[in-house]
Amino acid sequence: MRVGRSEIDLIVRRGSRLVFCEVKMRSRLDYGHPFEMVGADQEERLRHAASLWQAARPELAGLQSSFDIIGIHGRQIERLEHAF
User: Fold this and answer.
1) Cα→Cα distances 48→24, 54, 74, Å
2) Owning domain of residue 14
3) Could you give the number of structural domains in the chain?
4) CB-based contact 65:20 (threshold 8 Å)
5) What separation in angstroms does the CA of 31 have from each of 14, 28, 36, 37, 79?
6) Are residues 72 and 25 in contact, defined by beta-carbon separation less than 8 angstroms?
7) pTM check: above 0.90
8) Largest CA distance in the chain
9) Distances from the Cα of 5 to the Cα of 56, 78, 84, angstroms
10) CATH number of 57's domain
11) Percentage of the chain with pLDDT > 70?
């Protein structure tokens, strides 16, 4: 989903929680795990994009938000909850 100049891969509502997910994929792990692809700059961009997205939806103001990373490598899918 495009939010301003940023992008949020997946937004999920789970009860009273909004989860903003960043999805990263690596075909091989020789150069690191997909979770390692999200650095401080990208974290800041995701936080900012999530803030803009929530501000445009005041009906969701009371929900808690968190950030997960979904890592895909080979045939495995992993989720790092509350990544930042």
Assistant:
1) 19, 10, 31
2) 2-80
3) 1
4) yes
5) 33, 7, 10, 10, 19
6) yes
7) no
8) 44
9) 15, 27, 21
10) 3.40.1350.10
11) 100
